[in-house]
Write a structure and sequence with these properties.
The protein has 87 residues and is α+β, with helices and mostly antiparallel strands. It has helices at residues 2-18, 29-36, 40-49, 66-75, and strands at 26-28, 56-58, 61-65, 78-80, 83-84. A 3-stranded antiparallel sheet has the order 1-3-2. Strands 4-5 form a two-stranded antiparallel ribbon.
């Protein structure tokens, strides 16, 4: 059984290594902060307040799935100062 686990680990590692930067499915805290022009501290505060996009936390590492980022951006669209965009 250890051979299978090792083979699986190798194939997973190879798949990760062959991903180009455009194929990534998550952004880290600094990348998202830079994308939106805000401070990483703002994202940290939003997580504490239950605001912002959905995130994934593994150990101490925080990642934001791109799908959740796109959904959050879509829901933040406004038509005017008095109403949100309906799409």
């Amino acid at each position: 059984m250890p051979a299978t686990a090792t083979a699986l680990t190798r194939s997973t590692q190879e798949a990760i290594n062959t991903l180009s930067p455009g194929d990534r499915r998550v952004l880290n805290e600094n990348e998202l902060a830079q994308r939106w022009g805000i401070s990483p501290k703002t994202l940290q505060r939003w997580r504490c307040e239950g605001r912002g996009p959905k995130y994934l936390k593994l150990s101490k590492r925080v990642s934001y799935p791109l799908e959740g980022v796109f959904d959050f951006e879509h829901n933040a669209l406004h038509v005017s100062t008095s109403e949100r965009a309906i799409a």
